[in-house]
Design a protein that fits this description.
Elements: H1 10-29, H2 60-71, H3 93-105, H4 116-132, E1 146-150, H5 153-172, E2 180-185, H6 191-199, E3 206-209, H7 221-233, E4 237-244, H8 256-265, E5 269-273, E6 298-302, H9 303-306, E7 314-318, H10 322-328, H11 338-341, H12 361-395, E8 400-402, E9 410-415, H13 426-439, E10 445-449, E11 452-458, H14 466-486
Parallel strand pairs: 2-3, 2-4, 4-5, 5-6
Antiparallel strand pairs: 1-7, 6-7, 8-9, 9-11, 10-11
Helix pairs in contact: 3-12, 4-12, 5-6, 5-10, 12-14, 13-14
Length: 487
């Protein structure tokens, strides 16, 4: 038993930890050798692993070997420089070190007293980020507002929706729940729909407003106003409007100022979801994309997407914390303590869905300190420059077209169909997507815009360089040539 792994032993941790860091470093060193998109079939792992856990300890070396042979083939490599699907999920040395430290401390920081540094560091780094984004003073912790780290943007939109729901119901009465109406464009992330389902919003009262190519897929205030007016005439209660900076499909940007003023005129909660593109707004030349955020009640961005902070780390700011706390707080006897009872501290358990919470601010703090604002800005600018290069490459090949204006580092494009193509290139582009992803050389994803099947090329992986953009373009061109010859 002397050689078995103890639950916690400093010297064993040192030995095994070094081996694990070496393993991970070797993974990153060889990441380009793996197919970007996992090529396994459903159920593959059940055939490779035993049907019960071992009775006796196994060696770390044996575990590493199984990871190499059995786990890695089933991984889609989000950190690969050839990963261009969805939106990025950034890892970094600083983020990884912060994650290690968080795991090492392994605190459960639901209230200030459970680890004061966890709460206070979170307050400080969210203020740092607010300053970098030039958010209005109301979003800083010095007033009634402040920032909090959620797991994902889905959690962020849920907690503010619940706060907005309860705030309006205190005014109009709890029996009016079935009259409450939520508004967003058809480009808004599906997380809002799920939030409505959880919050008990009547399905028919979730207004999905059409955004089309005429507005570059942003939400027109006139469309929102018409919907609000119709609902008011029907005796319903408009209470929540969500705008997006960098939509999932095409990175479209909703007009925040106009939508915010509209929300204020009708007493609605205005939430701005900048999960993807918020990171870019630390650069002065892109800050204008969140002009109008001063009208918002809440604002969110994901540091784990494009800000070199390992998943999960979603940042949410509110102008007034009170609706959040009133909606989400509980105060059982076992959680009572002097600091909380005297209202001398923030207890972030009252700003989120779960009770427990990880020390996420450590990794964000380490990213900010070990890279600094200027390097982070350069990192963002480099990806946008690479996306511009990819966009120009598309324009050199008459077989392709850019479908919507490029925003940030996302390029939406498609292979042009023949004039008499019966589905306007839907199957053609589906087949191109399938072929390039099956090759394992790159991984891209798709969307549908104005009925067209569109390919999405999102630049943002930490290791991506110009050579990877050129290689990806060649993969796309070669597969397009093969497809067009077969027609």
């Amino acid at each position: 038993m002397e050689n078995t792994l103890k639950p916690m032993d400093a010297e064993q941790l040192r030995e095994y930890g070094h081996k694990m860091v070496d393993f991970i470093a070797d993974y990153y060193k060889s990441i380009e050798s793996f197919p970007v998109l996992s090529q396994v079939k459903p159920g593959y792992l059940k055939e490779l692993l035993p049907d019960s856990a071992p009775n006796h300890p196994e060696s770390l070396q044996d575990v590493f070997e199984d990871i190499r042979q059995k786990i890695i083939p089933g991984i889609t490599h989000w950190q690969s420089p050839e990963y261009f699907a969805y939106y990025p999920s950034n890892s970094s040395t600083a983020g990884f070190l912060g994650e290690m430290l968080s795991a090492g401390f392994n605190i459960v920081g639901f209230s200030w007293v459970t680890s004061p540094a966890a709460t206070e560091l979170e307050v400080i780094v969210l203020d740092w980020l607010a300053k970098m984004l030039k958010l209005p003073d109301q979003f800083f912790s010095a007033g009634q507002g402040g920032g909090v780290i959620q797991g994902t943007a889905s959690e962020a939109v849920l907690v503010v929706l619940l706060a907005a729901r309860d705030k309006i119901l205190r005014k109009v009465g709890k029996k009016s729940l079935e009259k409450l109406v939520v508004y967003a464009s058809d480009q808004t992330h599906s997380a809002l729909q799920k939030a409505c389902q959880i919050a008990g919003i009547v399905q028919d009262n979730f207004r999905v407003l059409k955004a089309d190519r005429n507005s570059n897929y942003s939400l027109c205030p006139e469309v929102a106003l018409e919907a609000i007016s119709n609902d008011l005439s029907a005796g319903l209660i408009p209470f929540f409007l969500c705008a997006t900076v960098g939509t999932t499909s095409s990175a479209a940007v909703d007009p925040l100022s106009e939508l915010g003023k509209l929300s204020k005129a009708y007493g609605m909660w205005f939430h701005v979801d900048a999960a993807y593109a918020g990171s870019a707004c630390i650069c002065p030349e892109y800050r204008h994309y969140i002009d109008g955020v001063e009208e918002a009640d809440s604002f969110g961005m994901n540091a784990h997407k494009w800000f070199l902070t390992n998943f999960d780390c979603s940042l949410l700011w509110v102008k007034d914390q009170r609706p959040l706390v009133q909606s989400l707080s509980t105060n059982p006897e076992f959680l009572k303590n002097k600091a909380s009872q005297e209202n001398a501290v923030v207890d972030f358990k009252d700003w989120q869905i779960p009770l427990g919470r990880r020390f996420r601010s450590l990794k964000l703090w380490m990213v900010l300190r070990l890279y600094g604002l200027e390097n982070l800005q350069s990192y963002i600018r480099n990806h946008i420059n690479l996306a511009e290069q990819f966009e120009q490459l598309i324009k050199t090949d008459s077989r392709f077209e850019v479908v919507s204006p490029r925003n940030f580092s996302l390029v939406c494009f498609r292979l042009l169909p023949a004039f008499d193509d019966h589905d306007n290139g839907y199957k053609l582009n589906y087949n191109l997507l399938d072929a390039v992803n099956a090759s394992g050389k790159i991984f891209i994803s798709h969307t549908v815009l104005s009925g067209n099947f569109v390919l999405r090329f999102a630049v943002g992986a930490p290791l991506t360089e110009e050579k990877h953009i050129k290689e990806a373009w060649k993969v796309l061109q070669d597969h397009a040539t093969t497809l067009l010859r077969s027609i």
